[in-house]
Write a structure and sequence with these properties.
This protein is mainly alpha-helical. The protein is built from twelve helices and no strands. Helices cover 75% and strands 0% of the residues.
Length: 305
């Protein structure tokens, strides 16, 4: 009998991954897990934020009056500039203190590193009121800090009730938010890259500047942006350690809502701070991307050599 020429049956094409029942079930399960967080986010953040934004345009009357007053009364711009300056100083001082600390943490033994992490986390374990009253005792006239400054020829420096004293306390409170992101990035850097650079004739300082520093930039940008954004909205510390003459934007918002009942003007201030925060976060994302590109170029250049 002649051999059959019928071709074997072909397998049916597999359904696309997105239409597979198991994939749909996994996606549905993931959405169910995210649903409580999404509901909480909408109820406790999105809706109040929308209410504040709408109120800033409609209270006490519809229009842009609240926003025009922000840029014409002069006082609000001075307070905003002071707030930005204090936040920038806190960020820079925290970076100068936190970068060496995080770097030493990567070199320390596990026991020493645990102690250093504990020291960093102490502000998280201390009551906010206790921290602020402790700083009030330290920086008051005749206090410990003023006595130390007197030993180096800076006697008579007043800190309590000034923006400088507020910035000093805020730096101590926000230092963990600077150290921990940098440490998480630094501990992932392969130190053999530094040894490779030194074996090719580069000095320790040159290797650190051209290899280690670019690789640590993502952590620097993350910590700096986090500290800057948190410093913009600080209220308790400036209220206790500052003064009306050195008030920050959060204090002015509190006065407008609590004493003046100017909810529209306070909402406009809040929206202004939100815009500044979004600009800062956008700039930090760009810097983080640029830092990653510089780090990749540095590693590639080291590999070419």
């Amino acid at each position: 009998m002649p051999a059959s020429t019928a071709s074997p049956p072909t397998a049916a094409p597999a359904p696309p991954a997105g239409r597979h029942p198991a994939a749909r079930r996994r996606r549905a399960a993931a959405l169910l897990l995210l649903l409580p967080a999404l509901v909480a986010l909408v109820l406790f953040f999105v809706l109040p934020l929308l209410d504040i934004i709408i109120g800033s345009f409609t209270d006490p009357e519809p229009g842009l009056g609240n926003y025009l007053s922000l840029f014409t009364d002069g006082y609000t711009l001075r307070v905003l500039g002071r707030t930005l300056l204090v936040a920038l100083i806190v960020t820079l001082v925290g970076l100068l203190l936190g970068y060496p600390y995080a770097y030493v943490m990567t070199l320390a033994s596990p026991t020493t590193r645990a102690v250093m992490v504990t020291v960093v986390l102490v502000p998280f374990w201390t009551s906010m009121m206790a921290r602020n009253f402790a700083w009030m005792v330290l920086i008051q006239d005749g206090g410990v800090v003023q006595g130390i400054l007197g030993l180096v020829g800076l006697s008579g420096v007043t800190l309590l009730g000034t923006a400088t004293g507020v910035a000093l306390s805020m730096t101590q409170v926000l230092l963990p938010f600077m150290v921990l992101p940098m440490f998480s990035v630094m501990q992932q850097i392969d130190r053999r890259l530094l040894l490779a650079g030194q074996s090719l004739g580069a000095s320790r300082m040159s290797t650190f500047r051209k290899v280690y520093l670019p690789l640590s930039l993502p952590g620097v940008v993350s910590g700096a942006s986090l500290v800057f954004v948190l410093a913009l909205g600080f209220y308790v510390t400036p209220a206790l350690l500052g003064s009306p003459q050195s008030a920050l934007i959060a204090q002015i918002i509190s006065v407008r809502t609590r004493d003046l009942l100017d909810f529209g003007g306070a909402g406009a201030m809040g929206v202004l701070i939100l815009v500044v925060t979004l600009i800062a976060l956008g700039a930090s994302r760009r810097l983080a991307g640029a830092g990653t590109a510089v780090a990749a170029h540095a590693v590639a250049a080291g590999g070419d050599r």
